[in-house]
């Protein structure tokens, strides 16, 4: 089935806004005011990358602060040029931006040495995704105590488990007015984090030990409580501390 005239016009518009002006679209457009047809189409060619850059800036604000305006905009231009938007919701744009930064090519071309930047972007994307997620009612302390059996399957509610080879949470929290260079000691070393909502929309963060992260990851994957604790190596004191926190934060929901 051949495309309708409207569909052909829509496709020409997308090509013109994202790549090069399509002659058929320019011919179909009537310029406005002092703008010619080509100049009117060019308004969208300039506006498209600007809007996508704005969307990236809203999500990856800490990366923007680290890079500064000039380098951040340069990285965004390179990313937008090779990554068109695939969603009607601009907040969906940028899912592959952390991987783009991790590739290192764009940063190297600017002379930027920031090996932690991709992890910082992964943190910001996870934060954004959790921010837009609906809160999930968690088990009360009494319900959690009753459900916490070796064969129980407990799942995290509105939460995200993160593990990075660089420490980025402190960089994300850094005072926006602090323009001092980032020292290696601020990002060197591994980091494991839990982002979660507790009864409402605010997002909280907790740094995790390796056994805590392993236990929560196993539970989130659907393993039983007994299996998760055994695989994680979490000792009795650590288990009590983790579940005291989980009860207060209403972190878990019981699997269906």
How do you describe this structure in short?
By secondary structure, the chain is mainly alpha-helical. 55% of the residues lie in helices and 11% in strands. It has helices spanning 5-18, 23-28, 37-59, 61-82, 97-103, 105-109, 117-132, 141-147, 169-173, 184-187, 210-220, 225-232, 236-249; strands spanning 154-156, 159-166, 188-197, 203-207, 252-254.
Question: If you had to describe this structure to a student in words, what would you say it looks like?
Answer:
With 256 residues, the protein is mostly helical. 55% of the residues lie in helices and 11% in strands. It has 13 helices and five strands. Helix 1 crosses helix 3. The two termini are 46 Å apart.
Number of helices: 13
Radius of gyration: 24 Å
Helical percentage: 55-70%
Give the domain tally: 2
One letter per element, helices H and strands E, the order comes to HHHHHHHHEEHHEEHHHE
The CATH C-level class name of the largest domain:
Alpha Beta
The CATH architecture name of the largest domain reads Alpha-Beta Complex
Largest sheet: 3 strands, antiparallel
Unreliable parts: none
Question: Whole-number average pLDDT?
Answer: 89
């Amino acid at each position: 089935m051949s495309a309708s005239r409207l569909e052909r016009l829509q496709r020409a518009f997308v090509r013109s806004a994202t790549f090069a002006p399509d002659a058929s679209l320019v011919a179909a457009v009537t310029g406005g005011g002092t703008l010619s047809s080509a100049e009117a189409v060019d308004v969208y060619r300039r506006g498209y990358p600007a809007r996508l850059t704005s969307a990236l800036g809203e999500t990856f604000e800490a990366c923007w602060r680290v890079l500064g305006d000039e380098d951040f905009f340069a990285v965004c231009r390179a990313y937008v040029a090779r990554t068109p938007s695939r969603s009607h919701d601009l907040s969906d744009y940028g899912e592959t931006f952390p991987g783009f930064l991790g590739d290192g090519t764009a940063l190297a071309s600017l002379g930027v040495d920031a090996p932690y930047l991709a992890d910082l972007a992964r943190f910001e994307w996870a934060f954004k995704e959790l921010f837009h997620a609906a809160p999930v009612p968690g088990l009360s302390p009494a319900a959690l105590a009753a459900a916490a059996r070796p064969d129980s399957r407990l799942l995290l509610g509105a939460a995200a488990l993160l593990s990075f080879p660089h420490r980025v949470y402190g960089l994300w929290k850094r005072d926006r007015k602090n323009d001092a260079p980032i020292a290696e000691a601020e990002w060197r070393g591994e980091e494991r984090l839990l982002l979660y909502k507790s009864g409402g929309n605010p997002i909280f963060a907790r740094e995790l030990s390796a056994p805590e992260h392993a236990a929560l990851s196993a539970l989130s994957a659907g393993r039983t409580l007994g299996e998760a604790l055994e695989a994680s190596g979490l000792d009795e004191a650590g288990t009590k501390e983790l579940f005291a926190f989980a009860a207060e934060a209403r972190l878990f929901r019981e699997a269906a």
